[in-house]
């Protein structure tokens, strides 16, 4: 008995000692988080339903793990969201936005430790678009689309292009569709994804090209775009019915996507309106509205001004007055005061042929620009990449690169160590060269190494106009097919009908990758020759999930859905934009997406050569 009593007392002492040790490991002060090792957030994964009229709420709890075990520390936790557009926190209570949904991480922070949970807000909105004139939208329009769709009344979506990638800040999108039946007078458009169910009702209004054009207003576009930025595709469906509810048809669904990040920077493009002027638009502004920047009427030039280049930081511009067989230099040293710093050959510089240019490209630092001018009888000058001062705009002969053949369309890489350019096979004019390939020169000490051929000259092709990606890992260029030999307007490197966009890494023997998705015809196009010319990269690389995304603008004669620019061989050219996955290009694959036309441009004129800068520079300072 004595031994048993001693054994029990010993066990009690040991247990008491263990308990004391455990208690000692945690501070007696509950606010002390110094021994916190991890956080657990509840709920760990939740889906909430919100509308444009009613927010959703969710209360969160947080549990911390300490040496003694787990205890709730919600009142000692700060909350945040990976995607702040989805909603906000007040203490531990989340309240959703009433303008968008989305998938995000709930982030919890206590002391130096963090934890997270997954949150999905599914956003629903109904938008009724009153007709400009005619019969109003009936009450309860959703009731007109009950039952089984009738195949004979099915509308057809003809724009946007299936699979297109759109930036969330483009703000406007037109949906073009054929009504499907004369019975269809009331239309329902649905944008559906795992985070979105946005429904609109509209009339057709005035028909264009045998169909209907429905422009999403900026608020409705934001509902869809912000809810799905960087996420899965959105399914677009159009239904056509009538006010009597006699039946309806349903289109095939098309997928569209939205990039994770907005496009930023400034776009300067040349237009044949405004007596051939240069327009600019700031993608960093809330309202994407172009303004006239440079033109003969506005600036007193005797003829057209175009073929422009902008420094990467947006502070300088160079362009050609009169273009081919003219090429007088127009240089703006300071875009904050363009009128005061404007320099032309028939202005403050004596009229001469000393500084003529056709195409140009600035160095990344903007202290130099490289240019070509081939419309001269002096062969040595024709066969030269001219260096110009980024301060004065004037040529620097001692730094210029003498070649044994004529160059055209130079482009200076963002890395600063490479210049790619068209190698002219047959001279016509600087604006319109024949039978080109693409060469490059690389920095070597204080000068430049001998040229390397990347895209060889081949018979029956014109390969021209390179433009480097933002990370300099590859360039894109145009390629035309010359059906009537190596010369002729169909293949002169200007607005060639057969021109399509290709990509190549800057190395000898590089694989030439056709950007087939970006070059593909739309539903309304009746031929594959769309005249895609002058591809130009936006200067930024952007995140897209675990990958990256670049943006490109081109000029094209393709049909913008139901909007027709005229002939494929002589009609208007409009600005289009498409996204590129650079990692697929690196793997030798087509990394492009189908394109969309820029909705803010003037569609009554042609728009060309969309040159990008990191920002639009205006005013003093």
The first-level CATH class of the domain at 129-258 is given as Mainly Beta
Shape: globular
Given helix and strand content, the structural type is mainly beta
**What is the alpha-carbon Rg in Å?**
31 Å
Helix content: under 10%
Poorly predicted tracts of residues: 1-24, 346-351
Superfamily (CATH H level) name of the domain at 129-258: Immunoglobulins
Task: Give the secondary structure arrangement, pairings included.
Blueprint lengths: L1 H24 L12 E5 L2 E7 L5 E3 L1 E6 L2 E4 L5 E4 L5 E4 L2 E4 L5 E9 L2 E16 L27 E4 L5 E2 L6 E6 L7 E8 L2 E7 L9 E5 L1 H11 L5 E8 L7 E2 L3 E5 L7 E6 L5 E6 L8 E4 L1 H4 L5 E6 L6 E5 L6 E5 L5 H4 E3 L14 E4 L5 E5 L6 H4 L1 E6 L11 E2 L4 E6 L5 E6 L13 E8 L2 E2 L3 E4 L5 E8 L6 E7 L18 E5 L8 E2 L1 H4 L13 E5 L4 E3 L2 E10 L17 E7 L1 H5 L9 E2 L9 E7 L8
Parallel strand pairs: 2-10, 10-15, 12-19
Antiparallel strand pairs: 1-4, 3-8, 4-5, 6-9, 7-8, 9-10, 11-13, 13-16, 14-15, 14-17, 17-18, 17-19, 20-21, 20-45, 21-22, 23-24, 24-25, 25-26, 27-28, 28-29, 29-30, 31-32, 32-33, 33-34, 33-35, 36-37, 37-38, 38-39, 40-42, 41-42, 42-43, 43-44
Question: In a nutshell, what does this entry contain?
Answer:
The longest helix has 24 residues, at 2-25. The chain has seven helices and 45 strands.
Descriptive tags:
621 residues; mainly beta; Immunoglobulin-like; ten-stranded mixed beta sheet; five-stranded antiparallel beta sheet; 45 strands; disordered N terminus
What can you tell me about this protein's structure?
- This protein has 621 residues and is mainly beta.
- The protein is globular and about 85 Å long.
- Among the domains are: 36-121, Immunoglobulin-like; 129-258, Immunoglobulins (Immunoglobulin-like).
- The N and C termini lie far apart (96 Å).
- The strands form ten sheets. Strands 2, 6, 9, 10, 12, 14, 15, 17, 18 and 19 form a ten-stranded mixed beta sheet that branches. Strands 31, 32, 33, 34 and 35 form a five-stranded antiparallel beta sheet that branches. Strands 40, 41, 42, 43 and 44 form a five-stranded antiparallel beta sheet that branches.
- It has seven helices and 45 strands.
- Strand 41 (542-544) and strand 42 form a beta hairpin.
- Mean pLDDT is 91; it is low at 1-24 and 346-351.
